[in-house]
Amino acid sequence: MLVAGVDSSTQSCKVVVREAETGALVREGRATHPDGTEVDPAAWWGALSEAISAAGGLADVSAASVAGQQHGMVCLDEGGEVVRPALLWNDTRSAGAAAELIQELGGGQAWADAVGLVPVASFTITKLRWLASNEPANADRTAAVCLPHDWLTWKLAGAGSLDALRTDRSDASGTGYWSTPTGEYRPDLLRLAFGREPLVPEVLGPTGIAGHLPEGASLGPGAGDNAAAALGAGALPGDVLVSIGTSGTAFSVAETPAADPSGTVAGFADTTGRFLPLVATLNAARVLDAVAALLGVDHAELSRLALSAPPGAGGLSLVPYLEGERTPNRPNSTGALHGLTLATSTPAYLARAAVEGMLCALADGLDALVAQGAEVNRVILVGGGARSEAVRRIAPEVFGAPVVVPPPGEYVADGAARQAAWVALGGDAPPPWSGGLVEEYEAKGVPAIRERYAEAREHVIDRTA
Ligand SMILES: Nc1ncnc2c1ncn2[C@@H]1O[C@H](COP(=O)(O)OP(=O)(O)O)[C@@H](O)[C@H]1O
Ligand SMILES: O=C(CO)[C@@H](O)[C@H](O)COP(=O)(O)O
Q1: Are strands 403-405 and 378-382 parallel, antiparallel or unpaired?
Q2: For position 304, what pLDDT does the model report?
Q3: Average of per-residue pLDDT across 378-406
Q4: pLDDT in tens, 5-23
Q5: Closest listed residue to residue 424, CA positions, set 202, 152, 213, 155
Q6: Contact yes or no for 391/382 (Cβ under 8 A)
Q7: Known catalytic residues?
Q8: Please, which pLDDT band fits residue 434 given cuts at 50, 70 and 90?
Q9: Which key words tag this protein in UniProt (predicted)?
Q10: Which pLDDT belongs to residue 437?
Q11: What is the mean pLDDT of residues 328-334?
Q12: C-alpha angle 103/104/110, rounded to 5°?
């Protein structure tokens, strides 16, 4: 029996077809997404169709699930047409709306208690407030609001009435109007943000059926991409997953919901009925892309250069806020390079500072998870940035914990496929797919890297416009 999993992520769409019982990979395909923090969902549909074709089609699968980038606001009118391009998780125009909403509900603690997170520009609820305030005609046309994975699942199921929209608790928990602690929508918060209650998708349980493909295969509930990665990588208690994709994320599977009034840790839900405390940064793999482009080298050479410079890069510290930042909440900030001397003005030192700076921002996230009660026995590194040898070898020095790297793969799409297998096979738990051999990286922690970074990150300036 075959199942399919989809990862509709920020930069691309990936499809895997696997054997339901064993998880063995049978076929895969991918296609790219356009750049930008505002994207017409039609581009995702085009990329999904291309990736499905590249993966040999879905005619022979028994079930499929879609995972996707979290938080993006997809507004639909009464007829199911998209009202405006989706605002993505990394679009910071709703930072002011986030500040308003925090103040209106009575502060961070009130939000953490109500839904498990404190609004920042990434979360859907702030985008709805921005729409109501800045594009009233588009707000008026909005009959339903859903997330990227909900919309793609609905399209795969034939784009019926708006009542057919479905989601899952992991992605619902990133909206700001669904409560992780209670497992219910908060229509009052939707009204607070948007002035009224647009239709929102029904939230399915872990193996709920969201619809069917034209050939009859069941569509699972799907998931937010980070929750799907946790399922795909088979994280155990004491593991923290760090994903280095467009976003950088650090998260673990927990038995109880997080409620961090500072907003650093977002108290998301996972795909299985548990919880997924998570810290996200806006700047991860693309920091390395940018520095490689700046130096005129490819990723392999960037990695070689970084590893040729000493730990700490001679005091050169790169603060990676190239897209503004969400953790810490500095949406208008810019990146910075501190500690430049004649000796450190070389490609090798810059490459090392880029890798270390990007990892230091994630190490701050690990600290925040620990403060919320997470154990960090080991870090599992996934995402495109984990393909860099420099990242893999420098990560334990920065994190001060052992790092394991599963074989290169598409862990979000795999998690979606494993959910689809659970839907197809039934039972109390997803099938126990065995992962491949992991590579282990251990190194003595180098606290000086983070100490220097902590000093540097206090000295950034905001963008001019
Ligand atoms: N060897 C490598 N070293 C560093 N970065 C890499 C490498 N290979 C791919 N990447 C980067 O990883 C990112 C894509 O990772 P991915 O996890 O698929 O992101 P997303 O899920 O956000 O679309 C791109 O920015 C890409 O340039
Ligand atoms: O905003 C978050 C998590 O809260 C991001 O992790 C998005 O879910 C996008 O993920 P990638 O495309 O970078 O994997």
Answers
A1: parallel
A2: 98
A3: 96
A4: 999 999 999 999 999 999 9
A5: 213
A6: no
A7: 225
A8: confident
A9: ATP-binding, Carbohydrate metabolism, Kinase, Nucleotide-binding, Transferase, Xylose metabolism
A10: 78
A11: 95
A12: 75
Q: Ligand 1 atom 8: the closest Cα is on which residue?
A: 384
pLDDT at 430: 96
pLDDT band at 436 (very low <50, low <70, confident <90, very high): confident
Place of tokens 């990723």: 299
The pLDDT mean for the chain works out to: 97
In which region does residue 350 sit, left (phi positive, over 0), alpha (psi from -120 to 50) or beta (all else)? alpha
**305: confidence class by pLDDT, cuts 50, 70, 90:** very high
**149 marked as part of a ligand binding site:** no
Q: What is the pLDDT of residue 68?
A: 98
Cα dihedral 236, 417, 89, 48, rounded to 10, equals 160
The CB of 89 under 6 Å from ligand 2? The reply is: yes
DSSP at 421? H
- Compute, in angstroms, the gap from residue 339 CA to the centroid of ligand 2: 31
ipTM exceeding the 0.95 mark = yes
Q: Where are the beta strands (DSSP E) in 144-265?
A: 144-146, 166-168, 178-179, 184-185, 202-204, 211-212, 218-219, 223-224, 239-244, 248-251
* Start-to-end CA span in the chain (Å): 54
Query: Cβ distance 305 to 352 under 8 Å?
Result: yes
List the structure tokens of 235: 């994280």
Taking only the tens place, the pLDDT of each residue in 307-324 is 999 999 999 999 999 999
Are the CB atoms for 381 and 244 separated by under 8 Å? yes
281 touches 419 (CB < 8 A): no
Q: Is 109 annotated as a binding residue?
A: no
Beta strands 74-76 and 144-146, pairing class:
antiparallel
Is the Cβ–Cβ distance between 113 and 187 less than 8 Å?
Answer: no
Q: What is the reported pLDDT for 234?
A: 87
Q: Which domains does the chain have, with CATH numbers?
A: 2-204 (3.30.420.40), 234-401+435-464 (3.30.420.40)
Omega within 30 of 0 (cis) for the link into 407: no
SS3 of 107-124: the string is CHHHHHHHHCCCCCCCCH
Helical spans, DSSP H, in 296-433: 299-308, 347-371, 389-399, 411-425
Q: Are 450 and 363 in contact (CB under 8 A)?
A: yes
Residue to probe by mutation, ligand 1, list 9, 11, 382, 410, most atoms within 8 Å of CB: 11
Q: Which neighbouring-strand residues pair with 218?
A: 63, 212
- Residue 381 confidence class, pLDDT cut points 50, 70, 90: very high
Choose one of 7, 32, 246 to mutate for the ligand 2 pocket test, by most ligand atoms within 8 angstroms of C-beta: 246
